[in-house]
Each structure stands twice: as C-alpha cells, then as structure tokens.
Amino acid sequence: MRAIILAAGMGTRLRPLTIKTPKSLIKVKDKPLIERQIEYLKEKGIDEIIVVTGYLKESFEYLKEKYNVELFYNDKYDIYNNIYTMNLVKDYLGDSYVIDADIYLDRNIFKNDIKDSTYFSVCKEKFNNEWKIVFDENNNIEKIDIVEEGFGYILSGVSYWSVEDSRVIKEELERIMKTSDFSKFYWDDIVRLNIGKLNVKIDKLKEDDIFEIDSLEELEELKRKLNFKGVTKKDNIVI
C-alpha cells in the first residue's frame, strides 16, 4: 500500500500567503498541511509516499530527508488541471491512496486494511460548485454529479484505489490523454465518467474530519472552527 499526494497547484486564491509558500506547506496548528497527512499515513504503516510537486518545487525538498518520501515534478502545473499530474504517476495508482495536499485532516482517517476503492467524504448542509456523490443503501457509489448548489456528501480530497479499479482508470486516463481536449478534465472526471465500470464505495465521515482550503475565506473558517484566537504571520506562513 502506498499514497500519492497531489501538491502541484499554485494556490492563487490563497495569495498573498502562497506567493512564497506552496499552499500545502501552509501551517495550521503549527504544522504544514502536507506534514500532517504524511504523519497520519506513517502512523498506519503506509511508508511508500509519493508527492507530486509543481509550483515552488524546491520548497518540498526537505520532505525527502525528513519523511523519506519520493518527489515527482509536474513541469506543466500552471497549464493543465490535475489530470496531467495524475498521468505522471498513474503506474503507482493500484493499492494506493490519492490525497489532495491542500486539505486539513482533523484526525487520522486512513486505514491500512482497506480493500475496496473508496471516496472518503464529508456531508455539507449547503454547498456551491461541488462534486456530489450519489450512493445506494450499501454505500456503493452509483454516480457523481457536478452540482452548482445543494447539500449532501461530496468529493473531499481523499480516496483509495484497488488494483482492479486502477487498471480501468489507467486505461481510460491514457485514452483521454491522447485526445486534444484532455486539458478540460480533472482526474476525478475519469472516475465520474466510468463509475459503472468500477466498484467504488463511500466512507462517510464527520463534517469536521476534512477541511478543504482553497481560499483565504476557507482558511479563516477553519481557524474559527479550531478556535484560533488570532493569527501570527511569519514568512507568509499561517501559524
């Protein structure tokens, strides 16, 4: 079992914090987001960890010595969506977690005995522009809808993929990457468009288990929820 952490993005909506610091290295509770993810993975015995970088790639070099992770570099991080990032590491997808590096995990949600492909999902009472998961009474995912507004369980930045399903995803990913319009896709589109060929379940989490941080507003909301009294700024990093 391994983990792939997607950390290539520029985090433009988090500027000025991300002018000199990748968004996954922003600190919450005095620890970079990506370090919390790595430490939780290692607590579960998941030591093979791949981090795909892009923007400010040199900022991640210390992770190799500190955590013995492997770094991949996406040199087109400012051109394409994360489908290009995933294409770089598609051969490692089987029996692997895929994690967005810009999420804060409030507890260790990882499992080292997981077998089925799974989206780990939180329920939102109200959301805008999210990928909503539709599932049956046995938690089998039937479809994923891109919804402008609504409520329910959504894609939350953490998933696990079995060896069997990864083969299907890899084949479809390779097919899409050969087309001229692949730049329109995100990597989760591969799953969404082929959900009938896959065996994917939902793991329903508590609302506060995962916080996605895409903007300064979401970072402020997280700080409020974690009962921050104030913010100290040092070298453009939130402490």
Would you kindly provide a brief summary of this structure?
With 239 residues, this protein is α/β, with parallel strands linked by helices. The chain has a single domain, classed as Spore Coat Polysaccharide Biosynthesis Protein SpsA, Chain A (Alpha-Beta Complex). It has helices spanning 33-43, 62-67, 82-88, 163-177, 187-193, 216-225, and strands at 2-7, 27-28, 31-32, 48-53, 70-73, 96-100, 103-105, 117-135, 141-161, 200-205, 210-212, 233-234, 237-238.
Tell me the layout of helices and strands.
Elements lengths: L1 E6 L19 E2 L2 E2 H11 L4 E6 L8 H6 L2 E4 L8 H7 L7 E5 L2 E3 L11 E19 L5 E21 L1 H15 L9 H7 L6 E6 L4 E3 L3 H10 L7 E2 L2 E2 L1
For CATH, the homologous superfamily is named as Spore Coat Polysaccharide Biosynthesis Protein SpsA, Chain A
Intertermini distance: 32 Å
* Main β-sheet description: 7 strands, mixed
Computed over alpha carbons, the radius of gyration is 17 Å
The proportion of strand residues reads 25-35%
Structural class: alpha/beta
Fold-level CATH name: Spore Coat Polysaccharide Biosynthesis Protein SpsA, Chain A
Helix content: 10-25%
Quaternary form:
single chain
CATH architecture heading: Alpha-Beta Complex
Shape: globular
Report the strand count.
Answer: 13
Overall pLDDT: 89
| Widest sheet, order of strands | 5-4-1-6-9-8-10
Q: Unreliable segments (pLDDT under 50, ≥5 consecutive)?
A: 228-239
Q: State the CATH class.
A: Alpha Beta
Order of helices and strands: EEEHEHEHEEEEHHEEHEE
- Tally of separate helices: 6
